[in-house]
Amino acid sequence: MLDNLSSRLGQLAKTMRGHARLTEDNIKDALREVRMALLEADVALPVVKDFVASVKEKAMGQEVLGSLTPGQAFIGVVNDSLTELMGKQNDALNLAAVPPATILMAGLQGAGKTTTIGKLSRLLKNDQKKKVLVVSADVYRPAAIEQLRLLADQVGVEFYQSNSWEDPVQIAKDAQDYAKKHFFDVLMVDTAGRLAIDEVLMEEIQKIHAAINPIETLFVVDAMQGQDAVNTAKAFDEALPLTGVILTKMDGDSRGGAALSVRHVTGKPIKFIGVGEKVDGLEAFHPDRLASRILGMGDVLTLIEDVQKGIDQETAAAMAKKLHKGKGFDLNDFKAQIVQMRNMGGIESIMSKMPGQIGEMSKHVPEGTAEKAMGQVEAIINAMTPKERANPALIKASRKRRIAIGSGVTVQEVNKMLKQFEQSQKVMKQFSKGGMGKMLKMAKGLKGILPGQ
């Protein structure tokens, strides 16, 4: 995500040298670099012009404080301006309505509306404990209704049955009546997309909007469309009273122009970004955090939130108790750590949000490599007997051969995994005198200071 922009802007801090104050003269080249980086990222030209002017105005005459280099001071200005451009802070969903709070989803065909409804309904159910009903008013696309039904089953929310021969407006009204009678907190309505904006599509969705009066009308747009995404968002905003935008396929876009343009052009906040195909691949959009990621400073707050969601407190507490009693960290615990990491979104997701060299390194790891390696480790542990997992010292040559055959890997890969385990074992020994307890207390403390906790 945003790799090209990130690498271009990341070079700025290294190129500016030795000035105590930022002036028009010493930021001229840096501003040119910012302009080029944004244009390459497919940011809309009017947005680029306004952004560069804003950075120049804020930077002019600014003192380079203390231990900062001029480049770092300039990057600080760029960071503030990026955050401002994308909306300063997260705009949460507004569900303050007499139940059901109705959410209407709009967008072009292929933007990912139906998948996003699955992701968002899961998030509302799991994180906000809402009772959610979903319905499809897309009677044109083959299998659209069935796709939403399968997604609803997958994430554990209720699906309102509609049929391809019914009127889309009537479907939405009937679903809303059903949601009221059965005390649902939220109703999410999927609508038909088209391959291009057309009058029939706009008229139909305007009628649905008038019939159900949703509290949120969200425009779902494919981030990989770049400037086209912004133009489409503008057209929909003129036809509907949009309340926000969801950018999908952000992980597939190395440029990121849509994320930087859409708020400025439409005036509507980006509420969520979609990453990956999995049902948990939806993140609340925080402009300040994305700005940090663009500039190579990581996204530590989102990482902490992922950790809090992914950690099973009972498992962690049991491990802390075990270590405190002097009982060793075994392969069952090692496997439990892998499961916890997967619950946090996987090692690649964790690495990408870390600041500094680790975050930079994640860009050069081929997609899926780390997850595949973790799956292989899990397969090797699964091929062991309970005794071997509890006492890895038992695993000698003949046992290694049996484990390799059982997990479909080579003996060398079994040896490599056991070495990784030994390294983890050494790290865990550091927590045997109460260190793990301190970590858990720290996690609880962080939970209290995070927004929305």
UniProtKB/TrEMBL annotation:
<comment type="function">
    <text>Involved in targeting and insertion of nascent membrane proteins into the cytoplasmic membrane. Binds to the hydrophobic signal sequence of the ribosome-nascent chain (RNC) as it emerges from the ribosomes. The SRP-RNC complex is then targeted to the cytoplasmic membrane where it interacts with the SRP receptor FtsY. Interaction with FtsY leads to the transfer of the RNC complex to the Sec translocase for insertion into the membrane, the hydrolysis of GTP by both Ffh and FtsY, and the dissociation of the SRP-FtsY complex into the individual components.</text>
</comment>
<protein>
    <recommendedName>
        <fullName>Signal recognition particle protein</fullName>
        <ecNumber>3.6.5.4</ecNumber>
    </recommendedName>
</protein>
<feature type="binding site">
    <location>
        <begin position="190"/>
        <end position="194"/>
    </location>
    <ligand>
        <name>GTP</name>
    </ligand>
</feature>
<keyword id="KW-0378">Hydrolase</keyword>
<dbReference type="InterPro" id="IPR000897">
    <property type="entry name" value="SRP54_GTPase_dom"/>
</dbReference>
<dbReference type="InterPro" id="IPR004125">
    <property type="entry name" value="Signal_recog_particle_SRP54_M"/>
</dbReference>
<comment type="similarity">
    <text>Belongs to the GTP-binding SRP family. SRP54 subfamily.</text>
</comment>
<feature type="domain" description="SRP54-type proteins GTP-binding">
    <location>
        <begin position="269"/>
        <end position="282"/>
    </location>
</feature>
<keyword id="KW-0963">Cytoplasm</keyword>
<dbReference type="InterPro" id="IPR042101">
    <property type="entry name" value="SRP54_N_sf"/>
</dbReference>
<keyword id="KW-0342">GTP-binding</keyword>
<keyword id="KW-0547">Nucleotide-binding</keyword>
<dbReference type="InterPro" id="IPR003593">
    <property type="entry name" value="AAA+_ATPase"/>
</dbReference>
<dbReference type="Pfam" id="PF02881">
    <property type="entry name" value="SRP54_N"/>
</dbReference>
<keyword id="KW-0687">Ribonucleoprotein</keyword>
<dbReference type="Pfam" id="PF02978">
    <property type="entry name" value="SRP_SPB"/>
</dbReference>
<feature type="binding site">
    <location>
        <begin position="107"/>
        <end position="114"/>
    </location>
    <ligand>
        <name>GTP</name>
    </ligand>
</feature>
<dbReference type="InterPro" id="IPR013822">
    <property type="entry name" value="Signal_recog_particl_SRP54_hlx"/>
</dbReference>
<comment type="subunit">
    <text>Part of the signal recognition particle protein translocation system, which is composed of SRP and FtsY. SRP is a ribonucleoprotein composed of Ffh and a 4.5S RNA molecule.</text>
</comment>
<dbReference type="InterPro" id="IPR022941">
    <property type="entry name" value="SRP54"/>
</dbReference>
<dbReference type="Pfam" id="PF00448">
    <property type="entry name" value="SRP54"/>
</dbReference>
<feature type="binding site">
    <location>
        <begin position="248"/>
        <end position="251"/>
    </location>
    <ligand>
        <name>GTP</name>
    </ligand>
</feature>
<keyword id="KW-0694">RNA-binding</keyword>
<dbReference type="InterPro" id="IPR004780">
    <property type="entry name" value="SRP"/>
</dbReference>
<dbReference type="InterPro" id="IPR027417">
    <property type="entry name" value="P-loop_NTPase"/>
</dbReference>
<dbReference type="InterPro" id="IPR036891">
    <property type="entry name" value="Signal_recog_part_SRP54_M_sf"/>
</dbReference>
<keyword id="KW-0733">Signal recognition particle</keyword>
